[in-house]
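Sequence dictates fold. Below is an illustrative record:

_____
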Amino acid sequence: MTLSMYQASVPVLTRALSNLKHVLALGEAHATARGFDPGLLVQARLTADMLPLVRQVQIACDMAMRGCARLAGIEPESVPDDETDFAGLYARIERACRNISTYTAGQIDGSEDREIVLKMRDYDELHFSGRDYLLNYVIPNLFFHCTTAYAILRQAGAPLGKMDFMGKPA
C-alpha cells in the first residue's frame, strides 16, 4: 500500500499543531507557576534577529492551512495576525486544525504533480510539484516554526521534553 498525499499532509499537520498547542500550554503554566506574566513569553525570542513566539505560532498555522489549500487546488485564505496572548494563540491553532480537517482525501490525493507556484518577497517565484511542495517546503517549514516555539519556551525554563514536542505515539 502506498502513502497518499492526504495521509502525508492532513494528519501530520494536525498532529504537529496539536502538539504545539500542548507545548504552549506547558509554557503558559510554567510562567504562571513561577509568578511572571505569561504574556511576556508571547513576545520572547531566542535571539534578537529571530521572530518572537507569537510569529512562530502564526507561521506554523499558516503553513498548515495554506499548504492544504494549495494541495487541494484552492486559493488559501488570509488570516489576520492579531494574536497578543496565549488564548489568541490557542484559538489560532484550533482554527487552523478545524480548517485543515475540512479537506478530504479526494481533494488532496492526486496532487503529487499539481504545479504550485509561490510568489515570494525575496524571490521572483518558487515552482513546486505538489509532492515537493508538501515534503520539501510545507512540512519542513511547519516543523521549523514548531521547533523554534518549543525552543523559546524551553529557554524560558518551561519543563518541556521531547515527548511534549512529539506527542504520544498514535
